[in-house]
Amino acid sequence: MSSEVPAAGARLQRLSWFDPEAAAMVTILVGLFQVLLAVPLAYSDHTLPKVFILPLVLGILIVAGGSFTVAHERHPSRLLLQGCACSNVAGLLVALLAFCLYCLRLSNECGKPKLLCLLHRNREYGYHMYGCAEEELVAYCWSVTLLLLLCDISAMMLHCLLSCSALKTLKKD
């Protein structure tokens, strides 16, 4: 029984250390994580109230790129390969934009968490450290942005690999 794939349905380029289907699955999970992190950012960030749209859109693009890649790996066709290449390149470009904006936000002096805490003496429990709610909210926003930045870096690496693989396969056909 021969399992030849026609030229129009060629699979993505594989390297010895890179499996496109596994990378696509991880890409989908990273995209879902981006979408989930958009929710707390929407309710907690009051300095830039519309910034939560960026991880939401980026997460949807990341999931789309990974989904096209998985679909192409399971059922190779030229149309799915073009969708895979386009969605991964678009995801890479938006991820680069998000990387710049997240770095700008983290470097902004207003966005850094304050490390000053107040000491409160409680007779039963000893000393306790606590800060005001506004400082804790700023620290929370800063932490969520840092998580988004780390997810974005992994998404950029995965999209770069998947885009190169899809474009090489398109060029080869």
What features would you describe in this structure?
68% of the residues lie in helices and 6% in strands. The chain is built from 4 helices and 2 strands; from the N terminus they run H-H-H-E-E-H. It has helices at residues 20-44, 53-74, 78-107, 133-172, and strands spanning 118-122, 126-130. Strand 1 (118-122) and strand 2 (126-130) form a beta hairpin. Helix 1 (20-44) packs antiparallel against helix 2, helix 2 runs parallel beside helix 4 (133-172) and helix 3 packs antiparallel against helix 4 (133-172). The longest helix is centred in the C-terminal third of the chain and has 40 residues, at 133-172.
Secondary structure topology:
Elements lengths: L19 H25 L8 H22 L3 H30 L10 E5 L3 E5 L2 H40 L1
Antiparallel strand pairs: 1-2
Portion of residues in beta strands equals 5-15%
Read across the widest sheet, the strand sequence of neighbours is 1-2
Unreliable stretches (pLDDT < 50, length at least 5) are: 1-7, 111-122
| Derived structural class | mainly alpha
Which sequence of SSEs, written as H and E, runs from N to C?
HHHEEH
Rounded Rg: 21 Å
DSSP helical segment count: 4
Distance N to C terminus: 25 Å
Mean pLDDT: 77
**Which overall shape is indicated by the principal axes computed on the Cα atoms?**
elongated
Tell me the number of strands.
2
Question: What percentage of residues falls in helices of 4 or more residues?
Answer: 55-70%
Largest sheet: 2 strands, antiparallel
